[in-house]
Structures are given as C-alpha cells and as structure tokens.
Amino acid sequence: MLHTAVTQLIGQTPLISIEVPDRDACLVLKLEKNNPGGSMKDRMARSMVVAALHDGRLATGGTIIESTSGNTGTGLALAALEFGLHFVAVVDHHAAPDKIRTMRALGAEIRYVDGDFAEDEVALVERVRLAAQLGAQLPGALFMNQADNPANPEGYAGVVEELMIQLPDGIDAFVGCVGTGGSMTGIAQRLKRHNSTVRTIAVEPAGSIAFGGVGHPFYQSGTGTPAGKAPGKVLDYSCIDLGVKVTDIQAFETARYFARRKGVLVGGSSGGAIYKSLEFITAGELTGTVVTMVVDGGEKYMSSIFDDEWMAKRRLLDPAIASQLDGWLFGKPHAA
Ligand SMILES: Cc1ncc(COP(=O)(O)O)c(C=O)c1O
Asked: What is the pTM for the complete model shown?
C-alpha cells in the first residue's frame, strides 16, 4: 500500500517478547519508536489536532502552540505539515537536545522559557504559562494543553486495538510511564473494559509527585510531574491499580543494558518502565503476559543517557543495576 502522508505511518507498531527465566511470565515490549516521529506521542498529537480542526477551534493556516519535552512536539510538527498549520514548540533546557533539533528540522518554531533553572529541573509550570499566553495572543492560534485535553487519551485507542490482535491469548498486566497520564489513561481504561482483571501499573520518576511523595528534580525527560505542578486533568487514577517510582539510575542503566545486551534501543522513561516490570515479575507479583510501553527509542538520547561522560558527570552510572538485570534475565551475572 502506498501512503501519501507520513502520518499515515502512525500505529501498527511491533512487539518484542523478552523471556524471563523460571517465571510464569513474559515481558512484551510495545515498540512505539516505530511511529514516524519516533514515539507513541505521534498518536495523541494527531488526535488533538484532528479534534481541534473538527470542532472549529483550529483552521487551516492557523498555529498550534504546545509546551513539550520534544516527543509531543515532534508529533505536532508532523500533524502541522499534514494539515497546513504552523507549530510553535515551547521548551526548556531539560529537554533532550536531539528532540529540539528534530522539531526544528520538521519546521517547528522553538521558544525557550526565560529563567535560570538547574539542569535536572523541568520548567513545566513556566512552559505551560508561556504556551497559554502565546495561544491567547497570536491570531488563529490554539494552545493544545495536552495535560487537560481529552483527545490526548483518546489518541491511544489504536494501541489497545492493535494489542488485542497482536496478543490473542490476552494481556495480564500493562506497565506504562506517567507524564500527562494520557497514554496510561487511554490504554488502561480500554484494557479494563475488555478484561477487568488486567493489572495496570503506572511508573513515574523518583521525585515526581503524581503518586505522592516528596518532589525533587530528576533527569528522566518527558515523564513525571514535578513539585509545584498539578497532575493533568486527563490522568484517571481509577483505572490505575498501582503507581510506583523509579530512580534515574535504574531507568538509565536499564536503557543502556537493553541496548548492550538485547540490541533494543529504548529511551530513559521506558528503561524505567522495563526495570519496574522486571522487578515485579521476578518478585512473582506480575505473571502471564506483561505488556510494557516503550514510549520512544534510545536514538533520541545519544548525547545524554548513551554518553558515558554525560552519565558519569551526573553520577548516574551504577554497575549494580546491570548485575541485577543479569540475574533477572539470565539467572546469573553475565561474563564480559
Ligand atoms: C519519553 C516520554 N516518556 C513518557 C511520557 C509520558 O507520557 P504521557 O504524557 O502519556 O503520560 C512522555 C510524554 O511526553 C515522553 O515523552
């Protein structure tokens, strides 16, 4: 079949199954980096634009404004090209530099928020404030407001339809990351509608406050709710059985390990979701088919997570995580 727009390539992403020895469970990774913008967020970005065009909040020639760490922005840049719109991405220095370059390459205008922020401090509140202000000021502009936009979770309907076909024997658990909560909500609600016994586990960075605890800065990008920011209206806690936290070290070392040992390049937040999935599986707390969302690929983090110097400088390296993963996946430490 010949496609006529790159956004027609969104969805139908593949699965890869990871064996866990001596456990009655299989870890299945949904590889969302196979979307054209390299992340699951292509799905919700297009969904938000289509909804806004449909109900007249946005018209051809208009401008999309969004606060983004880069993945939503890349999806919006693609949707803007499809529908003849301009796109202004409001970003901060917490975003992975490769993601900003990608949005710019796809024709987006990049606006940084003002202010001095620590490197591991995400300026989400300031980003949202500037995006809302630009949306109100610029003629024909619309602030997409992904954290409160119902078309965000709706954009993930296709993920569940695909999983039902790809895994006809059923799904026992779903593990995903929570930033806005759009993907977790859109997927968990639908999975539970099909099978009320499916277990749903949401993973956020240690220091993120969507599931309680004390807020502090974190390096995981695109995910989490920093202190001072309320979780988005799209986050439906009632469809999530458990919210858990993962440290930057656990998340990043897992991403590096999966690249090295499995040849699967995953991003940092997905490294965290994989780490927690394996922890629950090896503890016997998750059994059967456990699906974990791989939000994006490691290719977006070559100058951070996959750069030894960057990791060492920030004290994010810890060989104990690789040994732990060796034990979980191979039953013993791996001989180098
Ligand atoms: C890399 C990464 N991980 C996790 C998330 C969280 O996804 P959601 O906003 O659906 O909760 C995002 C969202 O932008 C992301 O870019």
From this structure: 0.96
